[in-house]
Inverse folding.
């Protein structure tokens, strides 16, 4: 039997604010452990979180760039679970009333590079947890260490519709979304440092059927290549199970890059019950129409628009325009060069060849 592949992605993007989402501690990467902490982000009892306005602004910027509806009123909730990197015992996150819903981004797909819209279900704000180190060098192997510098760093969770039908489309979506976030100065987009993380949901269904199949959630991929490889492996695995008339189990699986396989981490029966409830220490987030309009007025030119402009105004081939606008820094650099030396194609050749 032929199967359709269905993929939906959840991206966690670390916001480029100077301070954390509910306290004034620095978000700078790479400081010695537990030096950027205070009672709020260490989860001491009795402390009160205060929302960082810049984090809301960056969420609104992202929502506008992805054509989402922005909620006049959104709320934070407590997502309760126990883990040693989460001293409060709950993560503050948006749940039933996220800041934005119902948008899309466009990707190029297939040989003829046709444009396809991938829906954005929702965008919400939340805080990051701390980081655990197991068997750290220079320390005893049977000890684990907690670094709370990352605790309270602001994140956006961006959830897509299950609109992708192949690993390549998932890759194109991630590249496109990352470029938008980088152009917006919302996120630095580093998958290696973990400031841009992706969980991938995938299922198969008989070709042409409407009803979606049982999904598996994949985690632990820290590059675009890993995401695509994990999805490709999972398609084979699920196809094999279906061919053998075995059931697909709804579960979370971890990508093992070394072995090139996914392995079960937890099944639905072990799934969490987070007991979400409204965060009593934070008032609802109200975003006024006036503020939205001033943020909109301040939006930079986005990758797609810049790519078309490069092709049109500098008479560059589509390929050149795509490479040059791949990052905002490179595009800025190209335009600065063309100002000094107004021969766009020569500059483009030099940048794409010698420079890159
Ligand atoms: P959870 O927190 O349980 O992972 P979310 O709503 O945060 O749920 O994310 C669900 C993700 O899974 C979305 O990106 C959605 O598009 C995708 N998804 C939902 N159902 C399916 C399915 N049957 N096959 C593939 N992807 C799916
Ligand atoms: Mg999720
Ligand atoms: Zn703090």
């Amino acid at each position: 039997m032929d199967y359709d592949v269905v993929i939906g992605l959840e991206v966690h993007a670390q916001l480029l604010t100077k301070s954390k989402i509910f306290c004034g501690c620095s978000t700078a990467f790479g400081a010695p452990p537990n030096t950027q902490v205070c009672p709020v982000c260490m989860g001491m009892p009795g402390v009160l979180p205060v929302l960082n306005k810049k984090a809301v602004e960056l969420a609104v910027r992202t929502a506008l760039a992805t054509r989402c509806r922005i909620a006049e009123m959104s709320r934070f909730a407590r997502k309760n679970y126990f883990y040693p990197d989460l001293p409060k015992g709950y993560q503050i996150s948006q749940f039933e009333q996220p800041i934005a819903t119902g948008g899309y981004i466009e990707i190029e797909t297939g040989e003829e590079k046709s444009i396809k819209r991938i829906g954005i279900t929702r965008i919400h704000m939340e805080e990051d947890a701390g980081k655990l180190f197991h068997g750290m060098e220079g320390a005893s192997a049977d000890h684990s260490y907690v670094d709370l510098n990352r605790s309270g760093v602001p994140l956006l969770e961006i959830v897509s519709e299950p609109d992708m039908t192949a690993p390549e489309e998932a890759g194109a979506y991630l590249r496109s979304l990352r470029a938008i976030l980088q152009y917006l100065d919302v996120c630095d987009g580093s998958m290696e440092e973990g400031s841009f993380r992706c969980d991938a949901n995938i299922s198969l269904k008989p070709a042409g059927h409407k009803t979606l199949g049982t999904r598996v959630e994949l985690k632990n991929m820290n590059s675009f290549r890993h995401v695509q490889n994990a999805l490709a492996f999972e398609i084979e695995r699920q196809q094999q199970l279906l061919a053998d008339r075995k059931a697909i189990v709804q579960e979370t699986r971890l990508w093992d890059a070394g072995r090139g396989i996914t392995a079960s981490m937890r099944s639905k029966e072990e799934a969490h019950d987070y007991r979400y409830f409204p965060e009593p220490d934070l008032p609802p987030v109200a975003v006024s129409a006036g503020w939205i309009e001033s943020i909109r007025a301040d939006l930079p030119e986005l990758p797609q628009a810049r790519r078309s402009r490069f092709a049109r105004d500098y008479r560059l081939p589509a390929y050149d325009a795509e490479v040059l606008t791949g990052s905002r820094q490179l595009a800025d650099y190209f335009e600065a060069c063309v100002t000094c030396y107004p021969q766009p194609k020569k500059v483009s050749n030099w940048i794409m060849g010698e420079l890159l």
